Fold this protein.
Amino acid sequence: MERKLILITNDDGVGAQGIQELAQLMLQLGDVIIVAPDSPRSGAACYITCTQAITLGRRVDMEQEGLQVYACSGSPVDCVKLALEQVCPRVPDLLVSGINHGDNASCSIHYSGTMGAVLEGCMKGIPSVGYSLRTLKRKCDFSPYAEQVRLIAQTVLSQGLPQDVCLNVNFPEVAELAGMRVCRMGRGRWVQEWISANNPRGMNAFWLTGRFLNLEPHSEDTDYWALDHGYGAITPIQIDMTAYSVMDSLKSLES
Amino acid sequence: MERKLILITNDDGVGAQGIQELAQLMLQLGDVIIVAPDSPRSGAACYITCTQAITLGRRVDMEQEGLQVYACSGSPVDCVKLALEQVCPRVPDLLVSGINHGDNASCSIHYSGTMGAVLEGCMKGIPSVGYSLRTLKRKCDFSPYAEQVRLIAQTVLSQGLPQDVCLNVNFPEVAELAGMRVCRMGRGRWVQEWISANNPRGMNAFWLTGRFLNLEPHSEDTDYWALDHGYGAITPIQIDMTAYSVMDSLKSLES
């Protein structure tokens, strides 16, 4: 039987610790191809590069048996698109993205390059999973999550995922997980998002920052609650964003 | 009674024809503040700028009675975040984005900077609507859509929208609309997405291009079908991307 083919990307860049740890875990399940941004692309969402050409370079220095590595000048979504058309010898059996340094729970999924890549894989029909760790550190201990990362990937490899559905998996930074929970995406928003950048030439200039506001801190079925209480959160995410429940109320706009 | 305050942005940049036309229509409904990218940002999705400071400059040359205009060096989502915290004197009654040159129907919503800005407004609790025209032209006749653009904005201004729901409005390029339909987001994907960029220094380099593949061309309730048949499409979009219907099937991953 042919070995499974697993495509890996991220938004922290090919040199990040999280993607290297993920690659080592995935090598236990199949052959691995990394196509990842050549530098960090946090907050890239589903950004696609329309205004310039994308370069792709092989990083043989980072390769090992069963592992090919490519660095790409584009976004995480560009990486997936490029991998599927220009790099992979066949359609991958699984796409995994991460492990992101920073969580992508609640509304943060909309800004996440990690999850942008996962949505792209999903739209291309590939079972796709994003992994993120709630941490501010560039160097982390990923060992408390290794078993769950592998187990979820293995399950998706063997069972697949429903059409147009992918997984957003988030871990809290803990020595030992309280467990794993299947969650919905919690309601939240970012507030107090700008600080002045003190531009020396007198222009108004600002740095993006911000604080996350959990709009339902007591809802135990949300991803954010799980993280706050030491659980890993598995949230199924769908491509279809239609708000079906309100379609009828808009009928007065038809003509 | 205080005049309504309408915030406008887009992803084609402050100088695009579509945003200027939209501003003139919105001035019939209230005071208008434009905070838009200083140059085109197509494909920006929900990109947020984390790695550099954002500048904001007033464009008094583009202003008129009731209209303030700001150009921002960031993404469409940055523009909305900056407008709400640093520019608007009060919370806007409405956010509109566009009119985009190019449709954002089906899966294209995930890549759309126009709709990224709309999702951001929606997450901030502001009734938000994106308008897009299926055209390849930089200079278009927007008059066939003016009445519908205004009518939808007026309705949303007076009735609001449900919590965490925004609108994605797409028009076909026609002399006269066949009508307006409330639609769901059709299934589709982009294929054949890269052409070689003939890099003179021998690197692998590619330009993003592609062809849209409609995966359900005969489904009359989709946005894409509506556009193909001369109708304007009004698609309600929700922030919550949870795939509720598959949560039970994932319970085996809990621990």
